[in-house]
Structures are given as structure tokens and as C-alpha cells.
Design brief:
Layout: H1 10-13, H2 18-26, H3 34-49, E1 58-63, H4 69-79, E2 83-84, H5 85-88, H6 95-100, E3 104-105, E4 108-112, H7 119-129, H8 140-153, E5 158-162, H9 172-189, E6 193-197, H10 201-204, H11 209-212, E7 215-220, H12 227-238, H13 251-261, H14 265-281, H15 289-294
Parallel strand pairs: 1-6, 1-7, 4-5, 5-6
Antiparallel strand pairs: 2-3
Helix pairs in contact: 2-14, 3-4, 7-8, 13-14
Length: about 300
């Protein structure tokens, strides 16, 4: 769903043609919900209060596939985009400005862990993300130096490493090596590092007690039939440009969505989107049990618990 902070007027959109309404529904962005906001607040606290400490505390976000981890991290990046002080302070381009102020910064850097654990690949991915010059044949120590140099120059305040469970593809020695590299980056840069992955990520960070104690686990559990879930359906219902009143909040429909989505946020959203598009195409203009059961949506078999 689109960011709830930047939505067009839904009542006006209901009068748009079918193609425009379907296009709107397909645009998947951040959808605010209580647990998601709580985790965003935790990320904000890390950014504000954990920098430059002698022992920086970080977090590990754990959730099943399609549970909303990456959407959360992308939302955090949207809140803290790269900045260019040349644009916001054109009158301050003086010698003093260049000497005392930093004109460009990347507060939050997001990468996905390499498919196979490798220090050199980790550093290469970070340098590529920063658009920093380097050579692939550079030594590991050289790449580490460049990562730390450019992170400082660009005022990186939080480093996010998604899919951290990928390191389990390597030997125990390779896993320890990768986690030590991540720990050293946090130590040397004095910034929090956010790791994210499926439940196997807990094994990835347990290679060393000094490492595991730094990464406080934060869970994205599957949804259950409770007030938070009903509130989520209410939010979804409020931003769907359908012309008739849907039945998302009735017990039968809510339970059917929960069953078909396996309680996974991405599937809950995907299923309701598919049902809304089905409602537009069939001219029913509302989501009932019929639309949920007959729309074309495959939630797959990813039902792993967190």
C-alpha cells in the first residue's frame, strides 16, 4: 500500500477510472501499524543515542519471509534520505562553509548481506552502495579502510545489513569472520548496525557471545486474530478506492484472510490488494468473502515461524 502520509484523497480517487484505481492499489509502499511504528521508534532511538558510545548497542530484526522487514527498513531510509547542503544552503557556499560544514551525507546505508559469507564481498557491497571508488582486487584491509573512511566522510549514522542469515551458507570459521567484521565496523565507526533476517539469523549472530550480546533481537511475529489485526484491516479498508462498503472487518472475512495469508503481513496486503482489483474488474466494487476466495493470489508455502 502507499505511504499513509502521502495519500491522495480516497473519496476523489473512487471516482477515477478503473485503470487509475488499479494502478493506485498496485503501488505497494509503507502501511503504518502499531508494531511497525514501535520498531521504527527503536531505530530512531539507535540513530539518536547509540552513536559514539564506547560500546554501541544494535538490534537484529527477525521475521519470516514477506513479514515486512524490508518495508520497515525502506521506510526508515525514506525518513532519513541522503542530504545535500548545497541545495538547502546556497548562500552559505563560502570558504567557511567548506571548512566547517559537511555538504553531503548519507545518514542510513542499506545493503543485503552477500549470498556467501566473505569479508571482501561485504566491503565491496558497502563501497558500491556509497558510490565510493575502489578496485575489486584491493586487499581486504584496504577495502575495510575505504569503508570506514567513506562512512565517516559521508556521515553514515546507521548501517543496515538485511538477509544476514545468508552468512550461514559458509563454514563456522567464515561465519565468525563475517560477524567479527561487522562488529569491528561498529566499533571503529561507533555507529549502530541493524541486522535483519529470518529466524535462522539468530544462529548467525550467536557465533560469539560478545557479538550476540550487542544485537538485541526484535521480532515481527505472524498476525493473529486480535485487536491489532482488526485495526490493520481497518487501515487497509480505509485506503482502498472501492465504491461500495467492503466486509473486511467481519469475522468470516477476517479469518479467511488470516488463513490464506498464513498471518504474514506481506500476504495480508497482497491478498487484499488482489481482492480489491478483482472487485473492480468484476464490478462488485467491494471486498466480501467471495472476492477473497476467488481473486488470483498465491501466498506460497512460506509459513516459517519467526
Amino acid at each position: 500500500m502507499q505511504s499513509t502520509s502521502a495519500l491522495p484523497n480516497i473519496d476523489d480517487l473512487k471516482n477515477a477510472d478503473d485503470e487509475e484505481r488499479i494502478s493506485f492499489i498496485r503501488k505497494t509502499k509503507w502501511l503504518n501499524y502499531p508494531l511497525g511504528q514501535k520498531i521504527l521508534d527503536q531505530l530512531e532511538d539507535l540513530k539518536k543515542y547509540e552513536q559514539n558510545k564506547s560500546r554501541v548497542t544494535s538490534i537484529l530484526i527477525i521475521g519470516s519471509g514477506n513479514s515486512g522487514k524490508t518495508a520497515l527498513l525502506n521506510r526508515f531510509m525514506e525518513i532519513h534520505p541522503p542530504y545535500d547542503m548545497f541545495e538547502s544552503n546556497p548562500d552559505r557556499l563560502t570558504t567557511e562553509f567548506f571548512n566547517e560544514y559537511n555538504a553531503f551525507g548519507i545518514p542510513v546505508v542499506y545493503i543485503a548481506a552477500p549470498a556467501e559469507p566473505s569479508e571482501t564481498r561485504l566491503y565491496s557491497i558497502i563501497l558500491n552502495t556509497l558510490s565510493a571508488p575502489f578496485k575489486e582486487r584491493d586487499t581486504v584491509s584496504r577495502k575495510q579502510f575505504l569503508v570506514e573512511y567513506y562512512c565517516k566522510v559521508l556521515h553514515v549514522e546507521v548501517l543496515i545489513i538485511d538477509e544476514i542469515h545468508n552468512i550461514l551458507a559458509g563454514s563456522p570459521a567464515k561465519q565468525r569472520q563475517m560477524m567479527n567484521s561487522i562488529k569491528n565496523l561498529s566499533n571503529n565507526l561507533k555507529i549502530p548496525i541493524v541486522l535483519a533476517g529470518i529466524k535462522d539469523a539468530l544462529r548467525a549472530v550467536s557465533t560469539d557471545t560478545q557479538i550476540s550480546s550487542r544485537f538485541r533481537p526484535v521480532y515481527l511475529p505472524k498476525w493473529t486474530m486480535d485487536q491489532d489485526y482488526i485495526s490493520l484491516l481497518g487501515t487497509i479498508d480505509s485506503i482502498l478506492p472501492l465504491r461500495k462498503k467492503s466486509s473486511l472487518l467481519t469475522t468470516s472475512v477476517a479469518l479467511e484472510i488470516l488463513k490464506r495469508s498464513h498471518g504474514i503481513l506481506g500476504h495480508i496486503i497482497g491478498l487484499t490488494q488482489a481482492a480489491a482489483i478483482h472487485a473492480i474488474k468484476t464490478k462488485s466494487e467491494k471486498i466480501t468473502l467471495n472476492e477473497i476466495q476467488n481473486c488470483e493470489y498465491d501466498s506460497g508455502e512460506d509459513t516459517r515461524d519467526v
